[in-house]
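Hi support team,

I submitted a single chain yesterday and got back a structure, but I'm not sure I'm reading the token output correctly. Could someone confirm the output below corresponds to the sequence I sent? I've pasted both exactly as they appear in my results page.

Thanks,
R.
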Amino acid sequence: MVGGAVAAGLGLGFLAVLVIVLWISSPYPDSGPGGALHLAAGLWLLAHGTELVRYETLSGVPAPVGLTPLLLVALPVLLMRRAARLGSASDEEEEGEEVVVLPASAVFSAVVCGYLAVGALATAYAAGGPMPADPLSAAWHVPLVAVLAAAGGVWAARGRPLGSFPSWVPGGVRRAVTRPRYALALRAGVGGALVLLGGGVLLVGASLAWHGAEVQGTFLALTGVWSGRFAVLLLAVALIPNAMVWGAAYALGPGFALGVGATATPLGFEGAPSLPRFPLLAALPAEGTGNLLTWAVAGVPVVAGLAVGWFAVRRAREVRYGETALTAALGALVCGLVMAGLAAASSGPLGSRALADFGPVWWAVGAAAFVWTLVLAVPVAVGVHAWRMRPAVSGGPVEDGWHDSGVREIRWEALRRAAAEVAAVPDAGEVVPVPVPVPVPVPVPVVPVPPVRPQRALTIVRGISVDLPVVAQPLAPPVVGARVLARRKPPA
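Hi R., thanks for writing in. Yes, this is the structure output for that exact sequence:
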């Protein structure tokens, strides 16, 4: 419990030190150190997704601030996860010969309670600052982040076990979840989402380089002191993950909203948004109808769909085409859910009127990611499966045919199936036929096997049929049958 409270205190302390340093270096501070500390508490709550309220506006109407810098979210998540892992690791104490280990649920509950206690105090303290937190928003955002981070820390400390499902879960559901298709679908979906985010980074970087003069002019025009420019730079860096998600949403087609009635998509930039001066916003595409350059961003979801289809293919030979197609479809669904969650986390209001809608629409981004990857991933997965199942090419070099990936997997699969059949040692004098394929059409002599000890076990494997490479002359004549005789004492 103390570890959870310390994790929350470390996050608050880091932001408090940063805000105090900027307040001290500012030549025109508009509040005292108390106002800076209140602002640090509000920023800590904003890092959990809590919506802040700005009362000092020109119109006098309170304006919500709900756009959370995603890089700022990493601070409480990493601290909470570390506290949960340390709490789980310190629960083992030797008392004589016994080892006392607290249950994972006890560690999880204690860490979360300590964290939420500090979160409640921070919410009450931030209420007296210039940007207090909305109590209802803080009531579910802070516990959500704490629960997810603590669960991940406890799970990692326990060795990442899969565990067993509760007894009330139907048996069919428990058996279905343990199938390999779900792990492959998760890997494929996360891979497709990473490709989309990587494409979003490339789009944002290219746009910043293309509008370099506008970005530099906006950055220099905001403030003339180094402390203010440093604060603007920190905010821009914290918003880079948001820009990644926005770039991916732009490439997928739905784009993102820049206020009420203003939307930027590859097909065009509609509306006339009244945007604040900020370096990242200066890199937006030009207003008007799109062109070939903006339409070319469709290559990003195409590559993502190919990645989902590639990662959804298993190497096992017993998988059918329908199973591969279903795995690819589930991977597309995972990719859509991941992108929908990221889009929801990266957007939020910046005001009450014109900037009430700011960022991508989560359900549109999720649906677009699912459709793009589904259309491309299923045929790609089936094609890759068929390519890996292709027969060996005859007539080539011996080394290439033997070391071919598909042929090697076929041989290993045949050996694995045949190794399951194990026979007992035959009695003395019993003739046991051992069929072995003949690699070359040559006369097959029968060679008796030297006597063996009766105590040794002879493993007979049936059903193996492997195409061996053809050589000029076999090293030893093949054996068609074997007569197992009892060992006799040689005559004196």
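A quick pointer for reading it: The two ends are 85 Å apart (CA to CA). Let us know if anything else looks off.

Best,
Support desk
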